[in-house]
Amino acid sequence: MINSIVGMTQTSGDQRNSYDVIVLGGGAAGLMAAATAAKRGRKVIVVEVSNKLGKKILMSGGGRCNFTNLEVKAEHFLCDNPHFVKSALSQFGNWDFIGMVAAHGIDYHEKDLGQLFCDHSSKDILAMLIDECETNNVEFIIGSEVSTVEQCVANRFSVEGEGISVNASSLIVATGGLSIPSLGGATGLGYRLAEQFGLNVTPRSASLVPFTLSGHWQEFSSALSGVSLPVYASVPNKGFYESLLFTHRGLSGPAILQLSNYWKLGEGILLDLLPNMVVSDELKHVKTQSPNLKLETILSKLLPNSLVTAMMLSWFSEFIDKPIHECKNSQLDQIGAQLNQWRLTPSGTEGYRTAEVTKGGVCVDQISSKTMQHKRVDNLYFIGEVLDVTGHLGGYNFQWAWSSGYVAGMNA
């Protein structure tokens, strides 16, 4: 049973409303920080604006929660300071969280590229975090929005709002970003508090998000909605070997979500639909070995049939029903280039509505990487997605939540 005090309206001077630590945000980072601080004997309260704790945990990984990865390095994160994440990851790494999961008897399995998922449900991870909090007497205010945060008498932090009037010596801001506003927690409070206490906030954008297409390419993709295949997707200086998924609006799948961390509006992307093959060489080889085979037949052995059908109509209509021996080698070079180097420019992304994370956030140059504390305001901490730290797809953003939450909880 959650130690909930929803609707509490006592004054901030009331001793019952005084805590050692207030955590703003009951998501992954906030719950980790609260449990960690409470284990140290701190009196902790979590304030969550939405009507339920850990909503993002529950929906992640198709309901199975990709809670971390077997390999976690600084290179898996984007940040203006590429070294910032190293200290937190060393203090509480992926194997520390895996040990926590195992200690709670949660069964899990590895998927592609070291990604770890719950065998049963993401509810197991949330239940574990809540249990860690409850065992250490963490209290909760759920479904109430914060209106003001101030540093008042004796440098204590006062938090006021509808049904909220609490104060504490330490404040941990774990309010998340702007992604998936339908969950009810994307209020931007953390960014406003950062600016209130003199921190810069870098430009934010939706990330780990599908691309939208327009015109002919949108029609092409929509007709193939649901079709998936392994590709190499790239922008200048960055690329990923993962799956692409055609959607009604454009392109999605792990390769595209990863690429969205690096893509800029107006920039083209490059898709290699057969990344383990030089297609032109393969076609020329088939031409010598099986000259009467048709191009469509050859491609259908390499790519999904529905995609090949669409390509023949849209890209290679002049070769329909032609045996490959009637194709010039220069034409096979062009066909190969189209498949190995499909260039197109997304019209945009699906935005925060479907974005898994927010790229950008509270600038880390005035945040201690060793403690997550504001360098100029004692006992004020920022953790998780609200910071300018964005992980790759694959459990890295959750690991950042666990690591940064632990570090703040050990110091608050």
Write structural notes for this entry.
The chain is α+β, with helices and mostly antiparallel strands and 412 residues long. It has helices at residues 28-39, 55-59, 85-91, 94-103, 123-135, 189-196, 215-223, 254-260, 279-289, 295-300, 305-314, 329-340, 396-411, and strands at 18-24, 44-48, 66-69, 77-78, 108-110, 115-118, 139-142, 146-151, 157-161, 164-173, 205-207, 211-212, 228-235, 238-246, 250-252, 269-272, 342-344, 348-349, 357-359, 380-382, 390-391. The strands form five sheets. Strands 1, 2, 7, 8, 9, 10 and 20 form a seven-stranded mixed sheet that branches. A hairpin with a 4-residue loop joins strand 5 (108-110) and strand 6. Helix 1 runs parallel beside helix 5, helix 3 (85-91) packs across helix 13 and helix 9 (279-289) crosses helix 12 (329-340). The longest helix is centred in the last third of the chain and has 16 residues, at 396-411. It starts with 17 loop residues before the first strand and ends with a helix.
